[in-house]
Amino acid sequence: MSVIRVTEILATSPTSWEDAVDNGLERATKTIRNVKGIDVRGWKAEVQNAKIVEYRVVLKVAFEVEDVPGS
Q1: How many domains does the chain fold into?
Q2: What is the DSSP string of 4-39?
């Protein structure tokens, strides 16, 4: 039986929402093992002078909880 935990992160990109999602997943997998899926929960953008200067996404990252040896 596996246990899945979900954590929420905010990721950004100066290029696109898709790139923001990729950046978030790449960064999450540096510190979270056993990532099983992501759910994009929100799309936002910062606008300056009528242009998007930063794309932002809210991601729910699901990962499998590891057993601690000896417990």
Answers
A1: 1
A2: EEEEEEEEEESS-HHHHHHHHHHHHHHH--SEEEEE
- 59 three-class SS: strand
* Residue 26 is assigned to a structural domain of this protein: yes
Does residue 69 sit within a domain? no
- Residues 59 and 13 sit within 8 Å (Cβ to Cβ): no
| Model confidence pLDDT, tens digit, residues 23-56 | 999 999 999 999 999 999 999 999 999 999 999 9
pTM of the model: 0.85
